[in-house]
Design a protein that fits this description.
The protein is an alpha+beta fold. It is built from 22 helices and 39 strands.
């Protein structure tokens, strides 16, 4: 039975009007509600608008949509719309009985780019009990009314299906990329599906689509994989399967290469103490250390947020510093020629978000001074962290200082062997490190691959930063131990994240359930939640939910230190499947080396940063794969063309697309309409409908045959005019001249570029070249600024939407929503646009969170006049080339040159992020802090 407004308060009996210029738009509201168990279900429909209103003047064109928009413009005139499409909708029930609302807006999305059309907005919701509902709808004005639920099982079933259809799809689909983490929505959809026995389309596990890509996603801890794990947990798929099988066979050892590096190739002494399974990032001096930290703060902070569309600071750097017991500002005083001879960051992974196996290895010139300073820092850390303590351990007959806290916030081993000092989170790394001294464990310097690398990239280069990833490092990452434990710790981390959400949902439903057992009994969590096949479980410790084996969220026990023991049949089958695929399709991982050098340019304001990346020797499988796509290296490349801002050139083959000989594929961007970047639509079809691609000024070309341009009509048989021009059906223009095939939306560009195409001798043979001018001073700067602003705006809006979703879906008090959101996500909300997040009353009386950087501006969809995208200041010019050679040893090499502003930030110590998040400062030591014990310098008896 439908409740219309005769059942509501008198104020809602009247039609609601919004006046715009000389036109009126009416709102009519219909309501229906049916009681049920465990929830009733209701629907409110708001009808808005009786005519069309132009949003922007359509571009010239002959399409049906543009023509329709112009006809409406002629009839109605111009003006700004007021309708529900842009309104903030919310629903409140006086006693908090309305739950899990979902808002649906129906209009015509293609027409919406030109005009505002009449809309119909529907609010579905669940509710508890059978008593009348006192509802207030903010649309945005407050509409109040009392609704009496009806007893109608058929109506309840029909409306429940409609609610679930909208709620489970969440308007954009469960697999859509959001501006904020989807863990709360994942909990709600999965839990309600399980509780109400509703059908929920299951995600296709991405690991099924590409096995190796799936493993890489596991290594990266990607959000989509975390959501897949959350779905499996909440739907009860991960009921405890017994771990009864021995660890599966590991990957086969790498096939030995006949490298034959020179027997006397010099290697740095520090590499002789780095376990071969560890990554190796060598700095050598504090200025180098500081430079990389600041650069990765830029690249790994701002850039990461742009790529991932997130505005969250997880404090990973500060967390890792605290866990290691290394304090900001302290090591800056001890770096230098008098104390430190060499330093490197080492470890078996960089999983900072859950807990990494990482450490810092020093070669000291003054062991006593270094030991005293490091012990001072460790004592300060223990004084600041409640429950932290120090133990004196004996590992391989050596004394080791171990400081720890109950939840793992502090977990740091410190050991000295000769002039080498190691601070690490992992006991396994300590054991390997000590065993390298007498050759009982292989070091990097002892491996043929490393010595082969040093023969190709000798110490005399004096690199600013030197990074080496050994084949053993990759084999360890992809081993059964690592892969199975990675998935287990991800499951535990996801469960810890889901637990407070379940508590909030129980409170919203007025259920007195706070512990795991109570939440399971209340059906807010599935049976078996928090219990793991290795015998570990989630327990409360010092007011926090922690894994009984691994520790607290974000500070898990490093993977090498976790005993794997037996595995389940599912774990064994999954890893065996990956191993078979890896051996057959991939073969083995090649060593990777990255070397960075920098030099200051005349004037002192800019510096040149040279980057060398090599993967050598390449496995036969990799050589074969790359050879399908890349042609032979050549020293002939196209000369620079005036007017190009960003350009590329590649010598390619057809790969799997078509058979054909080698050809040069090239192209350039010269200018782009900033509106192209501000357009939030990602569909290329939508852009074509709006004629947006006409704003891209650039070209593509190929020589001596069309090659890949065939996919864009480059080999079309449409006749050309005497000058070689043809307009293709796609709107592109083609010009064929002197063996070149050129494509562009703008024939004048083809006319300008054609005479300048000529080949010149390259500096070194290569197959791929990429060049960019100073983008901050280029014609592309407005577009890049627009893109940066759009991304930053989406990040900022995403945070406010997350906070407001907590109010709407979980009944979190508005004033607590920001703190609650940060607690759930384990991160601080950041706004790349500056300003603050504030709780404000919206028009109509509803409360919600806004970002002042957007709410206090009249038109926040456009960048402010003084806005400059931060990334434009990073690089003032770039050149990059890539080559693959097959003799004397197969190798893949990249060479890059970047012009950057000179580093000028203050000298403080933080671990480089590489590139895993932003840092927060640690508190300064107390003035009355006790002086630490000064350990004696190591003797020849190898005692601490």
């Amino acid at each position: 039975m439908t409740n219309t407004y005769p059942m509501l308060k008198l104020t809602a009996l009247l039609a609601v009007f919004a006046v715009v210029g000389d036109r009126c738009f009416a709102q009519r509201v219909d309501v229906e509600a049916y009681s049920g168990n465990p929830f009733g279900v209701g629907r409110i429909t708001i009808h808005s608008g009786e005519g069309f209103r132009i949003k922007r003047v359509p571009r010239p064109g002959n399409g049906r949509i543009a023509a329709l928009a112009r006809r409406i413009a002629d009839r109605v005139g111009q003006g700004d719309p007021v309708n529900l499409e842009s309104a903030e909708l919310s629903l409140v029930e006086k006693s908090g009985r309305a739950l899990y609302p979902v808002f649906e807006k129906r209009d015509r999305p293609i027409l919406r780019q030109f005009i505002s059309v009449p809309t119909e907005s529907t609010i579905f919701f669940l509710f508890r009990g059978d008593d009348p509902l006192d509802l207030t709808v903010y649309a945005p004005d407050a509409l109040e009314g009392r609704v009496i639920p009806q007893a109608d099982p058929a109506g309840h079933a029909r409306l429940l299906r409609a609610w679930w259809n909208d709620y489970s799809s969440a308007s954009d689909g469960r697999d859509a990329v959001r501006e904020y983490p989807q863990i709360v929505e994942e909990y709600l959809t999965d839990t309600l599906a399980r509780r109400l026995n509703l059908t929920l389309p299951r995600r296709t596990p991405r690991r099924e689509l590409n096995i190796l890509r799936g493993e890489l996603r596991l290594l990266a801890g990607s959000e989509t994989l975390r959501l897949e794990v959350a779905e499996a947990v909440l739907m009860g798929d991960l009921a405890n399967e017994a771990a009864t099988i021995t660890l599966p066979e590991e990957l086969p050892p790498p096939q030995p290469e006949s490298l034959n590096p020179p027997a006397d190739v010099p290697t740095e002494p520090l590499a002789g103490r780095v376990p071969v399974e560890c990554f190796y990032v060598r700095f050598g001096s504090f200025p180098n250390f500081q430079w990389l930290r600041h650069r990765t703060e830029d690249w790994g902070g701002e850039l990461r947020d742009v790529v991932s569309a997130r505005g969250l600071d997880y404090g990973l750097n500060a967390r890792m510093q605290q866990q290691l017991g290394l304090r900001e500002g302290k090591l800056a005083d001890i770096f230098g020629d008098k104390v430190i001879a060499d330093v490197a960051l080492i470890g078996t992974d960089m999983f900072l978000s859950e807990g990494a196996a990482i450490g810092t290895l020093f070669q000291a010139k003054s062991s006593a001074a270094l030991s005293a300073d490091l012990m001072q820092q460790r004592r300060s850390t223990m004084n600041e962290v409640e429950g932290a303590k120090e133990e004196k351990l004996t590992i391989a007959d050596r004394r080791v200082s171990y400081i720890s806290s109950p939840t793992g916030t502090v977990r740091s081993y410190y050991v000295v062997d000769g002039d080498y000092h190691l601070v690490t989170t992992s006991r396994q790394i300590v054991e390997w490190f000590l065993a390298t001294a007498d050759g009982h464990h292989e070091s990097l310097a002892a491996s043929e691959e490393f010595r082969y690398t040093r023969a190709r990239m000798p110490l005399e280069r004096n690199d600013t930063i030197f990074v080496y990833l050994s084949p053993e490092f990759f084999d360890n990452l992809l081993s059964g131990h690592y892969q199975i434990e990675l998935y287990r710790r991800m499951r535990s981390a996801v469960e810890i994240e889901l637990f407070p959400i379940a508590q909030l949902a129980a409170r919203a439903e007025e259920k007195s359930a706070t512990t795991i057992d109570e939440l399971i009994a209340a059906d807010m969590l599935p049976a078996g939640f928090g219990e793991h096949p290795d015998g570990s479980r989630l327990v409360e410790k010092d007011g926090q939910l922690v894994d009984s084996l691994r520790g607290g969220r974000g500070t898990f026990l490093p993977i090498p230190d976790v005993p794997l023991g037996k595995v389940t049949p599912s774990e064994e089958a999954e890893y065996r499947r990956f191993k078979d695929y890896y051996v057959e399709q991939w073969g083995q991982m090649d060593p990777v080396v990255v070397a960075i050098r920098r030099e200051e340019l005349p004037g002192g304001k800019l510096e040149r940063v040279e980057l060398e990346v090599q993967a050598a020797p390449l496995s036969p499988q990799h050589v074969e794969t790359l050879s399908n796509w890349l042609g032979e290296p050549t020293d002939q490349r196209l000369a620079p063309v005036e007017g190009n801002v960003v350009s590329f050139e590649a010598v390619v083959r057809g790969g799997t697309f078509f058979a054909g000989g080698e050809h040069h594929l090239f192209g350039a961007l010269r200018n782009v309409d900033p509106n192209f970047a501000l357009d939030a639509r990602t569909s290329i079809i939508a852009r074509i409908i709006g004629s947006q691609l006409q704003g891209v000024q650039g070209y593509l070309g190929a020589w001596p045959e069309p090659g890949f341009l065939r996919l864009l009509g480059g080999s079309s048989n449409l006749p050309a005019d005497p000058a070689g021009y043809t307009q293709l059906r796609t709107g592109l223009w083609r010009r064929q001249i002197n063996g070149f095939t050129l494509l562009s939306f703008h024939p004048q560009i083809l006319e300008q570029v054609s005479p300048e195409l000529q080949f010149v001798k390259a500096e070194r043979p290569a197959q791929v070249w990429l060049e960019a001018d100073d983008l901050a001073d280029s014609t592309l700067a407005p577009m890049i600024n627009a893109f940066g602003y759009r991304q930053s705006r989406q990040i900022t809006l995403g945070n406010t939407r997350f906070m407001n979703m907590l109010i709407e879906q979980l009944h979190v008090p508005p004033e607590e929503s920001l703190a609650t959101g940060e607690r759930i996500l384990g991160a601080k909300f950041m706004s790349p646009l500056g300003g603050e997040y504030e709780l404000r009353k919206w028009e109509g009386g509803a409360e919600g969170w806004v970002a002042t950087a957007l709410a206090d501006r009249d038109n926040s969809t456009q960048p402010p006049p003084d806005y400059q995208y931060e990334a434009l200041r990073w690089v003032r010019g770039a050149k990059l080339e890539l080559s693959m050679q097959q003799a004397p040893q197969a190798a893949l090499a990249a060479h890059g040159e970047f012009i950057m502003p000179v580093e000028s930030r203050p000298s403080t110590f933080e671990l480089p992020k590489l590139p895993f998040g932003l840092s927060t400062p640690q508190p300064k030591p107390k003035a009355d802090e006790k002086q630490p014990e000064v350990l004696p310098a190591p003797s020849g008896k190898r005692e601490f």
